[in-house]
């Protein structure tokens, strides 16, 4: 996980410059969401069990739940349903 997180950090920092990002006060929520999504996607790409069974393993389900929670938090924080820009 530590290695994956470092990869995430480099990817995220490279991307953050041209990303049409929201205010910095939301960055922790955004970071949590991006991290959860990255971790989940990395798992789905690398997990042998998920590929072998063609179905999410227990870890995948756990990561997906975190991902969904983080996404909900992000939408709440950014007001995705109420665009003010
Ligand atoms: Zn898996």
Compute the CA-based radius of gyration.
Answer: 14 Å
- The best one-word shape is elongated
State the helicity in percent bands: over 70%
Percent strand equals under 5%
Low-confidence runs = 13-17
What is the end-to-end distance? 36 Å
If you average the pLDDT, what whole number results? 78
- List of distinct ligands in this structure: zinc ion
Strand segment tally: 0
User: Oligomeric status of the shown chains?
Assistant: single chain
How would you spell out the order of helices and strands?
HHHH
Structural class: mainly alpha
Tell me about the largest β-sheet: none
How many H/I helical runs?
A: 4
Could you name the key traits of this structure?
single chain, 85 residues, mainly alpha, 4 helices, 72% helix, 0% strand, binds zinc ion
Structure, described:
The chain has a domain at 26-78. The protein is 72% helix and 0% strand. It has helices at residues 2-15, 27-46, 48-53, 58-78. Zinc ion (ZN) is lined by residues 43, 47, 49-50, 57, 59-60. Zinc ion binds at residues 43, 47, 49-50, 57, 59-60.
């Amino acid at each position: 996980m530590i290695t994956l997180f470092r990869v995430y950090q480099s990817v995220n920092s490279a991307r953050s410059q041209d990303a049409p990002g929201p205010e910095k006060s939301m960055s922790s929520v955004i970071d949590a969401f991006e991290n959860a999504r990255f971790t989940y996607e990395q798992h789905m790409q690398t997990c042998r069990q998920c590929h072998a069974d063609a179905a999410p393993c227990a870890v995948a389900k756990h990561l997906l739940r975190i991902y969904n929670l983080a996404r909900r938090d992000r939408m709440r924080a950014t007001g995705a349903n109420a665009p003010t820009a």
